[in-house]
Design goal:
This protein has one domain: Neuraminidase (6 Propeller), CATH 2.120.10.30. By secondary structure, it is mainly beta. The chain starts with 8 loop residues before the first helix and ends with a strand. Helix content is 2%, strand content 65%.
């Protein structure tokens, strides 16, 4: 009997790396967009929140699960990249102001018994929509990016982030060398490798930012079973300690990296500014809580936003931090879990 693919449980978390509490209104003067999913009766549904109000995203009939992985907003255009599972296939797509557009991959790509394509980053430049990601066949992963739905393959395994400056397209990602993975980025399709210590293996490259012609990339490597967060500035690696980095941005001359670090058997959310760490708290009255995942980081008008999800009584709770204050996203009381992946902040 064939098993239906879905975006729940182990299948979902492998592909995206991984107690209802009321929404706390922040009185922010910016519009806050967060992409993710909510779970209802065992099914994940792609959605986004605007200032705490959730909007579900269209998927085909028969979809067994979906996720909104990343989001960008330009003017009146809201663009979200994600994926949905239907007919034993995991399909990459994006939603343009709510209208779903599928992203093309070669026929017959297979991973874990399902057709699989995954978006990871999104940006808009002028009238063009850029999305980074990957697809797989029975032998390897292939990094790629799409411009307005047209795919360009890259020499690598996975593209994890994308940004555009003028006519230059920058993509961060991972290259596979035998059974080892290495960090890299592509500038207009030309790959440049990023160094990690001898004997280390790259865990993930989590984002890219370009500021004044300088290239900044966040990542995490594994050495001797210990994860080490870092970022590269024009190819030079800067260590952040025993942790995982999940996103990067640059404001003026300040380099901000989001991530998490281990504290006993739990993770603590944090971010670094020029290498100095600031911890991010979760509500104290949930003493059973643990951090599940951290997404990206944004600075807007001297406000620092970090998107992320923690667990409470085995339930995922989506939300973000604004200058260190945790803001949970409101959910229907019948919905058991929510998770946040992407974020966009726009001045009202």
């Amino acid at each position: 009997m064939k098993t239906k693919s879905n975006l729940n449980g182990d299948v979902f978390h492998k592909k995206y790396n991984q107690l209802i509490h009321p929404f706390i209104h922040s009185n922010d003067l910016n519009d806050i967009y967060v992409s993710g999913y909510h779970e209802d009766n065992g099914k994940n549904t792609a959605c986004y929140w605007l200032n705490g109000t959730r909007t579900d995203l269209d998927v085909p009939a028969g979809t067994t699960g979906s996720v909104a992985a990343c989001i960008t907003v330009q003017g009146d255009t809201v663009c979200i990249a994600g994926a949905y599972a239907v007919d034993d296939k995991l399909r990459a797509c994006y939603w343009l102001n709510g209208t779903r557009i599928d992203l093309n991959v070669p026929a017959g790509t297979v991973f874990a018994g399902i057709t699989c394509s995954l978006p990871s980053g999104i940006t808009i430049q002028g009238k063009n929509i850029y999305i980074s990601g990957a697809y797989t066949d029975s032998k390897k992963f292939t990094a790629c990016y799409w411009i307005n739905g047209t795919r360009t393959d890259l020499d690598g395994a996975f593209a994890s982030g994308i940004t555009v400056q003028g006519n230059d397209v920058y993509v961060s990602g991972i290259n596979a060398i035998g059974d080892k993975f290495s960090a890299c980025y592509w500038l207009n399709g030309t790959k440049a490798d990023l160094n990690i210590p001898a004997g280390a293996d790259i865990d993930f490259v989590s984002g890219i930012a370009v500021h004044e012609n300088n290239i900044y990339i966040a990542g995490t490597y594994d050495i001797g079973g210990t994860f080490k967060a870092c970022y590269w500035s024009n190819g030079t690696r800067i260590e952040l300690g025993g942790a995982l980095s999940t996103g990067i941005t640059v404001q003026d001359k300040n380099i901000l990296v989001a991530g998490r670090y281990a504290s006993g058997h739990k993770f603590t959310a944090c971010y670094w500014i020029n290498g100095t760490r600031t911890d991010l708290a979760i509500p104290e009255h949930y003493n059973s809580q643990d951090l599940f995942d951290i997404g990206g980081i944004i600075v807007q008008e001297n406000k620092t936003y970090v998107v992320g999800t923690y667990t409470a009584n085995n339930k995922f709770k989506a939300g973000y931090w604004l200058n260190g204050t945790r803001i949970n996203l409101d959910v229907n009381l019948l919905i058991s879990s929510t998770q946040a992946f992407g974020m966009a902040v726009v001045a009202k």
